[in-house]
Amino acid sequence: MTNARILVVDDEPQIRRVMRTTLVARGYMVSTARNGEEALQKVRDERFDLVLLDINMPGIGGMEACRIIRSQGDIPIVILSIRNAEKEKVEALDAGADDYVTKPFSMPELLARIRAALRRSPLTSPGTPDLLNLGKTAINFVARRVTVDGTEVRLTPKEFDLLRYLASNPDVVIPHAKLLQAVWGPDYGEEVEYLRVFMNQLRKKIEPDPSHPEYLLTEPWVGYRFSLPKKA
Amino acid sequence: MSLLSQPVKVVRILGALGIVGGITLFYYRAISVNNVTVALSFLLAVLAIATSWGLIEALVASVAGMLCFNFFFLPPIGALTIADPQNWVALFAFVVTAIIASHLSAKARMQALESTHRQHEIERLYTLSRNLLLLEVNGRMAQGITNLIAQVFELPGLAFYDRASDRVHRAGPQDIPVEGGKLRDTALQGTVYHDATTNTTAIPISLGGQPMGSLGFQDPQVSETALHAIANLTAITLERAHAQDVATRAEAARQSEELKSTMLDALAHEFKTPLTPIKAAVTSMLSDSDMNPTRQELLRIVDEETDRLNSMLTEAIQMSRIEAGQLQLHRSPQALRKIVQTQLERLGESLEGRKVTLEVPESLPRVSVDPEFIGIVIWQLLSNALRYTPPGSPVTLRASAGEKEVIVSIEDCGPGISEQEQRKVFDKFFRGKDQRERIPGTGMGLTIAREIVRAHHGRIWVESEPGKGARFSFSVPRSPRESLL
């Protein structure tokens, strides 16, 4: 997907400059925005395949921009930030980001993460049913749609991929690293906080009682397990 | 304790004599009654005098009454002789009763007076203590204390020597004749000074054996107990002011430290912003495989130095956070081996092919730590061991479990650390004298490690013998939930 369209949002002109030069050289189509407001305008007016979003910007800032973009669609968002505390990462993921890269970053690493964010796992893989009914929740893996009580629930691509990977390996404990590599890509494996945040979001969307999950279960210290209802 | 002046006393004695004379005249001339009535009347007069005026007046009245009774009423009348032995008994009974009654009633009166006086003093002490508590702590506080004591106890003059400022404060309409030197001596020696010629008294003020000053009074109409109570109240007020002052200073220091940390944090972030495009540009160029080797080597140098600058800034940010007290730990049960593995991966290329031997038993219990911060400690200790030892020399990381804690040791075979430097290695900005110029570093790494370990209620220490390598160890608590798994 080399001609993917990427929106680079950063208030630092030199960062926009280096990103544009490098990404264009790799065959991406690049547009830039200087702040959150401009980014929101561009996302409304044009179609992008990925947003690279700085956090610390004047105006509404990256975190809020991330929340708004996520509320409007499922475009992958990669956060670029100088802060590398876990708290900030979790906040960004909670706001709907798909990945978090700490500045300064090495370009090959960022490119790998861009590829990972753009990559969607193949529509079907062996072992995945086309349709899955979990009580009130129905998942259509072919159309990438989830409905609860007949109402469509919007899942981000990463959330959907995570759900599909777990559902295609029911009743098996999947370790954190394996899950991260399967959904995000081979360069991942340590970002356990990603799983915590995404699993929480998934539970909120598909579990009848998110604080007492029935399907998406935590295996302490090891990983996660998808529990298939006995009657299904 | 007589508070009366001499002339008043004389007038009262004359008054007492007058009363006795009046009774004598009344019974001798006006109405004729028997001797018992006369004696009882004298006795009543003596009791009234004792109750309202005092013992001396009552005794004078008793003697005068006895003489008049004898002379005018006991036969033979008109002479100080007594014919009937029965009348001797009557006279004797009158005298003894009068004297005892005078004594008792005068004593009761004194006690009543004294207790009123005491109560008054206590009320004043209470007023003083309340006002002292309300006194604002500022530079004029010592003068405020002096004014307050003089005003509440209506003292004609008061001098207060404040040892902290070495100044004497005075209050009241009169300037009392006691020098600053005497007051200072009283304060330092801790003994009461009294000058009988000027009737001045100076009492020391101290708290917990610590001299704080002294108070000088002239002829104070206040009991000694009250004087000491005033001194104690003053001491407590001074101590309260001192404690408040210390707290204010500490708060100011904390705020200044916080400001420094905030500035360091902001500065470090500002420096990281230009590093981002440099790093992005140089790594982008380096990923071009067709580049000529010289250019590639030069770019690699730029890349490595960018990383170094970045890690220095990261340390500065961590240090400023720690110093600002913003170290917020999110502790959970963690497998130490996993944290170590993550850090070895992070060290990546700086390992330069060197091997770190891990001796972490599979059965090691989990530890209750914040993995991010304990990761920083392990990273610091490992990168120190690698940086300060010759290439190729072994580095070992060992972990062992105690009853309540897990101890992690990182051992190298480098030049070691002298005993003198061992004491300072954890100090901020300290760098070994042999390494200062040869090996890059900020001198913050071990301080950061120490603060993180302390925040986990653990210990960190170093053991080394020059020439025989060094071993840095730290302890972290075992996870209490371990037994439930």
What does this structure look like?
The complex is a heterodimer of chains A (232) and B (485). By secondary structure, chain A is α/β, with parallel strands linked by helices. Chain A contains 8 helices and 12 strands. In chain A, the strands form 3 sheets. Chain A has a 5-stranded parallel sheet with strand order 2-1-3-4-5, with helices on both faces. Chain A has a 4-stranded antiparallel sheet with strand order 6-7-8-9, with no helix packed on it. In chain A, strands 10-12-11 form a 3-stranded antiparallel sheet. In chain A, α2 (36-45) runs parallel beside α3 (61-72), α4 (86-94) runs parallel beside α8 and α6 crosses α8. The mean pLDDT of chain A is 87. Chain B has 485 residues and is an alpha+beta fold. Chain A binds chain B through residues 12, 14-15, 17-19, 21-22, 25, 56, 82, 84-87, 103-110, 190, 220-221, and chain B through 269, 272-281, 283-284, 287, 303, 306, 310, 314, 328, 330, 333, 335, 342, 345, 366, 372, 485.
Main beta sheet strand tally, sense and closure of chain B: 5 strands, antiparallel
Q: Residue share in helices of chain A?
A: 25-40%
As a whole number of angstroms, the C-alpha radius of gyration of chain A is: 18 Å
The stretches of 5 or more residues of chain A where confidence is low (pLDDT under 50) are none
Which strand order does the major sheet of chain B show?
2-1-5-4-3
Q: How can the largest sheet of chain A be summarized? A: 5 strands, parallel
Please state roughly what percent of the residues of chain A sit in beta strands, choosing from under 5%, 5-15%, 15-25%, 25-35%, 35-45% or over 45%. 15-25%
Shape of chain B: rod-shaped
Please report the total strand number of chain A as a whole number: 12
Uncertain stretches of chain B: none
Overall mean pLDDT of chain A: 87
- How would you classify the helix and strand content of chain A by structural class? alpha/beta
Cα-to-Cα separation, first versus last residue of chain B: 83 Å
Mean pLDDT of chain B: 84
The secondary-structure element order of chain B is HHHHHEEHEEEHHEHEEHEEHHEE
Specify the number of helices of chain B: 12
What fraction of residues of chain B sit in β-strands? 5-15%
Largest interface, C-beta within 8 A: A-B, 26 and 27 residues
Number of helices of chain A: 8
Quaternary: heterodimer
